[in-house]
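Dear colleague,

As promised, here are the two records you asked about, laid out in our usual form so they can be pasted straight into your sheet.

NAME FIELD: protein one
SEQUENCE, THEN STRUCTURE:
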Amino acid sequence: MNTISSGTAPKAKKSLGQNFLQDDNICRRIAALLDTTDADRIIEIGPGPGALTRFLQASPHSLLILLEKDTWWASDRQRVADCRTQTVLTDALAFDWRRISPPYPWIIAGNLPYNVASPLIWDITAQATGLVRAVFMVQKEVGLRLCAQPGTKQYGALSAWVQSHVSPTLEFIVRPGAFSPQPKVDSAVLSFTPLPVAQRPTEPDSLKRLLSLCFQQRRKQLGGIFRRAALPDWEDILRALRIEPTLRPEALSPVTFNKMAVSFRAALTNHKKKS
């Protein structure tokens, strides 16, 4: 069982967005959602004092890798690690998630700091093609955005991008009392199931540019957005895809955005060079 290392444990650092999970029941539920087998390899992001780590170590698995940015906690986790656990002192935002490829599949979990959750999930879901399953705790507002459907106020670039790569499910809400120190908002635990390769974006760079262009002006109509961006042949492209130019970006599904990304690939590449 993990214990606090010799010396006084440091206070949570606001600069790292640290709110340490301390509720065993929540940890148990997260570990259960991972549904691991003896052959599975797990990555935990930001273990901190190790509340969730204890339950991951008790779950069936072959290897557990802990990615920890905080030097003190990385040392503490390594000190009490069992033989199947390795601690890596690193910033998860700088980690090369492309290393998680089909020949090297992993399950990923973590109580993600509020200030990095969105970019982390953006990168992991798109780059980790060997992802088997993921369970993350994030700020409730971010969780709602990740699962948002077209036509809702929470739906945006993050929603469309993540849902183009995985299927997210909001599993349950976590109140501030489960953490130390307590955040001022609720959290949400979400599970992520990768989409089949055939359903993933074929033009991810184009999709990224398209989402950025559209949702920077989310209240504008598509026709106006593309006209102001001077994208060539935008009217013909929308007509061919049977998309009304009067629609706003929030009305389009991830599938539709991916179709548009393919058709607009050349135009978006040239637009990037000009801007």
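NAME FIELD: protein two
SEQUENCE, THEN STRUCTURE:
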Amino acid sequence: MNVTASSAATDTETENGSAHRFSSRSIRSFVLRQGRMSPAQRRCLDEMMPKIGIPYRQEALDLTAVFGRTAPKILEIGFGMGETTARIATANPGTDYLGIEVHSPGVGALCKLIDESSITNLRIIQHDAVEVLCNMISDDALAGVHVFFPDPWRKARHYKRRLIQPDFVALVAAKLSPGGYLHCATDWENYAEWMLEILSASSLENTADGFAPRPAHRPPTKFEKRGLRLGYGVWDIVFRRPQ
């Protein structure tokens, strides 16, 4: 997953009336990178997005109407190729999931998984996550937000491009319902420390004493398993909005 954020922030107001501090330019939560799509991914994207895709619009989304039921709603930002997202949605049929991704190969791959496994509790928005949060997600609407393995931007001069910034966390916190959680995961220690510091200074409360054990709702990826066998670390950070 490759998500990031830009700088040069100024105050703006969302369609839902919540003031947040974002770029005077068009802030993006991603970096566009070219990727090749397989014929199967392209076919599934073309066939499935009209069925399970949600077009971006500058108005609040009625999540209950979108899924046709009242259930907890979880937002995932940057689902990559979608394997983890599909596994989570399949394992939790009583919860609804909204995945955001800009890269067409990943969107096509998740569409293929949704089709093959007949997943009914998962929808996709192919657009910038910051704009979706600002304009389409109402305050207090989400039971949780997942940000798994965002681009760590390893060089210090690029830290300003990292997605997890104070203003972004404040935006997410406004969209969480009381008791709702923000779950971040990274395999880059410096970014893990960065996340922990920023979240600790936010209005959210840590659910652990520092880093959290991997929650059961996040299945380990094959790359994570391989990295752990090689001695690499993975850090989970889970903060919750106070009740």
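A couple of things worth noting about protein two: The chain has a mean pLDDT of 88. The CA atoms of residues 213 and 236 lie 7 Å apart.

Best,
R.
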